[in-house]
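Quick one: structure for this chain?
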Amino acid sequence: MPSEKILLQLQNMLLKAVLLGHALPGSSNPVRFPDLLFIKRQSVIFLLDKNLSGPILIEELSRPIHVLSEAALFQESLKSGDVTFLQFQSPEDSGDEVTLTLDARIATQDIHQQTLGLSTISVTFFQGADGWRLKEEPLYSAS
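Got it. Here's what it folds into:
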C-alpha cells in the first residue's frame, strides 16, 4: 500500500477533478460526475472523514469543504434536513496500482434509515515515470 502521503495526494487529485470538472493525469477527458449538482446545491461541500488519509486542500473551490465524522454528519442532517456528502471507500492496492472510489450519498433526517446512494466514481492510478496517472478512464456507476 502506498504511504498515507501518496494516498492523500491521490485523494486530493480525484476530489479536485470531481468538484472542478478537471481531467485527471493520464486522461484528456474532464471528469463528469453524474450527481455533482446535488453536491454543489449546498453552500458547503461535506466530506466524510472515513477512509480519508489527511486534510483536503482545494484552493480553487468557491465553497468550503467540511470534513465530518459520521456522527457529525447525522447531526447536520437532523438540523438541516437531507445532506448530500462525499465519501471515499477504502483504497485498493494491487502492487504498483491504487484504486480509489468516491461515492456521493445522502444522509436523511431519519436516523433509522441508511444513507442513500447516488453516484460513484472509481479510478485506478499507477506510478509512471512522470508521477501518478490513470491506468484507464474512470468508471462511473449509480446506486
